[in-house]
Amino acid sequence: MPIPNTSNVDRALAWGYQAQISDGTTDLLLRLAVAPGRELSVTTAPLAAQQINTAQTPEEFRAEFGQTYARSDFTGGAGLDQAHGRNAAPNDFRRFFDSKGVDVFKNAGEKGDAYSLCLHKETEAVAAHASTETFQSMVEVDDTIILARDEQIYKTTDNFATVTTHNQLVGPTGSKIVDIALDGSNLYIVKNNGTDSNIYVCDLSAGFTFLDYSGNLSGRVVEQIFVVKNIVLSAEADGKLYELAGTGSPTLIKDLPPGEKWAAVEDAGAVILAASDGGYIYSIKEGTSGLELAGQTYIENEEIVDVLETNGIIFFSTAESTSAGGKVGRLYRGVLSNDTNLYNVSNRQLIKEFGADDSTLDHSPQKFYATRDQVYFGVIDSATETHLYSIYLPTLGYARDKYFVTSTSGKVLDIVVAKDQLFFLVAGVGLVQEASTYVSDGYLIMSSADFFTSQPKQWVGSRLYVDTIGNNTSVQTDFSNDLNDLTTPTSTNYATIQNLEQGEGGDEVTIQNVVARWFIPKITLRSNDGKTHTPEVYSFAVRAFPEPEDVILRLPVNVSDKLERPGKRGKIIPGAGAKLFNTLQRLEGKSVTCKVFRPDLIVRGILENVTLPVTEIVQRGSSTVFCTIQVRGQQVTNTLDEVTSLGVLGVGELGIYEFGS
User: How far is CA 648 from CA 76, 274, 455, 642, 651, in A?
Assistant: First the structure.
């Protein structure tokens, strides 16, 4: 007798078959041996045991069930969209996605303070130095700030509480100051009128008196001045870069192609780096007869904006024009390499891209400024905000720093830090300074977490540790399960977990009915009404359970030789049970689909186990030979097609049990 299957048995249920199992090749119809003590059962598969993952923040481990996503250090910087990704970088465990108004680097490093997040200080325009002049520049030496614009030069040793003004530089008729540069305590000033130029020098350590350095440079328009390795260089309107020698004849170093301009000159140690807006970074070194070219690096299809070297790392920014008239900005880092006396910037890595392909604004990073452990630069964030960003040198992570609200879409023209206070110039605004008060609120969006699996999780609770909340400050935690909300901090999809207004936190706050693959935490810090205090956040953690997707289906299968026939006497077919059992055994370990007719149930998965046949002998009735099969997999939900005249009165799906399967 052939093994019963859907091809040789019509209306299986009517013939006493209650289930079907198939691996796509072998197809079996089964009679079940359900009775007290051998029930058909469908249970949720047990969750896997907790696994400790030492690749994540070990200081946040707890002896509790589930998996925890935690951060207690954010110095790795912004830009990480997924916390759990393949080939994670060494600093990914302390990175996040984005922030605004939150200082992630203030308490970093070996400063003797516990690491924490806090709010940034506000920024404010300095009314006495408001200006819309095209040229404005600022330098700092030994906590002395020099600010220049138009024909005025301002000097302050107390962060603009008092200012000394110098406006007696003559220069060519109708000339204005166009650039300044520092070499130790020597301050160089360039004036031009669009036709002729003049350069002055002042030893700040000896007072505030300027001397004529170059004399009248007739017919030469000096636009920028640089001093590197005690060498004074001038970049001129016609694309020529000169080494100056006071009133003596200058030495031409490099003449750019027509239409190109010099963007920046930087001392990179072994060589001088000179960047042009044509995309080239030229390496210049001291030779036997003066400065000479010693290599070049080309950044294809991009315009170099600025270059900085600090601690052996070279940072440079670029701009690429958009179809809408704006510019996409990019920030890179690299190192200086030497190959047979030719120097170039190698191992270039993109750190961050600013703006979109359809932007109407210039989002290029402007005006690098380095301190001991950070590098600042400015970016136009939107039509109403200009942002400073900072790079934390120990981790090379970046984050938004302070920002200024303006209606001018102004570029950052210069940045300095004096007496631990930050100042920067904004085009169309003038001087902006770091205020003594904090921003009203700031947020940090952590990277999305999914614990390396695509299955939904039950997100059950979170913990927030803070310094003792007081002075009417607060910390609020929110979450979203939509990846699009990473770039939309104001999204209404963010739901509040807790708003901590007192205490130190630490207790798990329940998250109810949240089942999703992704979890995106957002931490918002708020200062008090007077903006004189900031909360401090030590760490945040969220816990999840795997959402059970697998079920275990256990079926007692009749493998006796007796064939029960509805309404008729049973018939014994020798060997039929053994043949069925052997076929079931061959399916063990294979991917199968198991369908139970009553109740209507389909499970797709693996046939995990087929037990040996057992003969049950009872006092009354016939004995039964059965085995138990176990299928682990996912339950398939049956859906009914649209009901039509073909699906009623037992003709179609609605009559399947009445007339058999």
Answer: 65, 83, 39, 11, 6
User: Is 1 a residue whose pLDDT tops 80?
Assistant: no
For 587, phi then psi, to 5°, come to: -85, -10
Residues 416, 140 contacting (CB under 8 angstroms): yes
Say whether pLDDT at 659 is over 50. Answer: no
- Helices and strands of the chain, counted as H and E runs: 2, 51
Which phi and psi angles does 580 have, rounded to 5°? -65, -45
Q: What's the rounded mean pLDDT across residues 285-298? A: 91
Between CA 176 and CA 134 the distance in angstroms is 10
Element of type H or E holding 658: helix 656-659
Calculate mean pLDDT across residues 345-355: 96
Q: What is the DSSP letter of 290?
A: E
Q: Which CATH class is domain 58-85+444-546?
A: mainly beta
| For range 495-502, the mean pLDDT | 95
Q: Give dist(CA 125, CA 132) in Å, integer.
A: 13
Q: How far apart are CA 38 and CA 58, in angstroms?
A: 46
Q: Between vectors from CA 361 to CA 360 and to CA 365, what angle results, nearest 5°?
A: 145
Residue 218, amino acid: S
Q: What are phi and psi of 13, to 5 degrees?
A: -65, -35
Report the alpha-carbon distance of residue 409 to residue 383 in Å, rounded: 5
Radius of gyration of the chain (CA): 37
Confidence category of residue 408, pLDDT binned at 50, 70, 90: confident
Q: Of 424, 443, 442, 350, whose CA–CA distance to 380 is shortest?
A: 424
Mean pLDDT of 592-610: 92
Residue 441, pLDDT score: 97
Cα dist. 310→264, 268, 307, 404 in Å? 15, 8, 10, 26
The stretch 488-503 carries a mean pLDDT of: 95
- Largest Cα–Cα distance of the chain, in whole Å? 124
CA torsion, points 181, 185, 186, 189, in degrees to nearest 10?
Answer: 40
Residue (of 57, 64, 91) closest to 538 by Cα position: 57
> What pLDDT shows up at residue 542?
94
Instruction: Report the candidate in 146, 196, 144 with the shortest Cα–Cα distance to residue 170.
Output: 196
Q: How many Cβ atoms from other residues are within 10 Å of residue 295's Cβ?
A: 21
Q: Which DSSP letter does residue 256 get?
A: P
Whole-angstrom Cα distance, residue 540 to residue 519? 13
Q: What are phi and psi of 414, to 5 degrees?
A: -170, 155
Sheet holding 176-183, edge to edge: 176-183, 186-192, 197-203, 210-212
